[in-house]
Amino acid sequence: MATAKDKSKGHEEEHEEPVVRDKRRIDPETGEARKPAKAGSKSESETELGGETLTDEDVQKLLDSSEDPKADSSDSEHLDDLKRIQAEYANYRKRVERDRMLAHELAIAEVFLGFLPVLDDLDLADAHGDLVGGPLDLVAQKIRVFAERYGLEKVGEIGDQFDPRIHEAIAQVPAESTEANDRIVEVVQYGYRIGERLLRPAKVAVSTSGD
């Protein structure tokens, strides 16, 4: 006859241990937030290509099979798709970088367009000798260093060959010799550019043979 103690022991053996499911949003071991699993989600090592999911091993297999003459035609198609995607991504990165640099250059050019009258006043004061040893000399040097740091370049110097792309001839002076023909003999107003972008052409007087 089973005693109460035996019944209690048998009841404990039949009782299953409780199953604990940790549903906490924070991992107690790492302290990082847990991301809920999504049905049908792909791991980081899987890539969807042509409606199929490729793992890193599949990608490596495709790359290795490019030199295998016995490679399956389906693998070759996947390899072609992979190469096409890589080429498109490389072109995309180049286009984004080019657009970023263009936007940066345009922003700097827009700022300096409104700053050119200040540089003109400094050039005029320098031409009259008002900067040398004067209180504005140090200020003018700092402004010019700042402009050069951002790629601002002065256009038009006496003796330069006349270039209609960056120079504007507002006067002509008879040339003393053939070698001095089409040379800048006077700069009325300097031009400026940033890289290949011309902000303003230089207004100059040009020597001419009169032919």
Radius of gyration, CA atoms, in whole angstroms: 38 Å
Tell me the helix content.
Answer: 40-55%
* Shape descriptor: elongated
Task: Give helix and strand order, one letter per element, not per position.
Answer: HEEHHHHEEEEEE
Q: What is the residue-averaged pLDDT?
A: 75
Distance between the termini: 137 Å
Strand residue percentage: 15-25%
Number of discrete domains = 3
Count of extended strands: 8
Main sheet record: 3 strands, antiparallel
Q: Helix- and strand-based class?
A: alpha+beta
Largest sheet: spatial strand order: 3-6-7
The number of helical elements comes to 5
Which segments are poorly predicted (pLDDT under 50) over 5 or more consecutive residues?
39-50
Characterization of the model:
The chain has three domains: 52-111, no CATH class; 114-150, no CATH class; 153-211, Nucleotide Exchange Factor Grpe, Chain A, domain 2. The strands form three sheets. The chain has a three-stranded antiparallel β-sheet with strand order 3-6-7. Strands 4-8-5 form a three-stranded mixed β-sheet, with no helix packed on it. The protein has a two-stranded antiparallel ribbon with strand order 1-2. The longest helix has 41 residues, at 73-113. Helix 2 packs across helix 3. It is α+β, with helices and mostly antiparallel strands and 211 residues long. The chain has helices at residues 4-14, 56-65, 73-113, 116-127, 137-149; strands at residues 46-49, 52-55, 152-155, 167-174, 184-189, 191-194, 197-200, 202-208. Residues 39-50 have low confidence and may be disordered. The protein is elongated, with a radius of gyration of 38 Å.
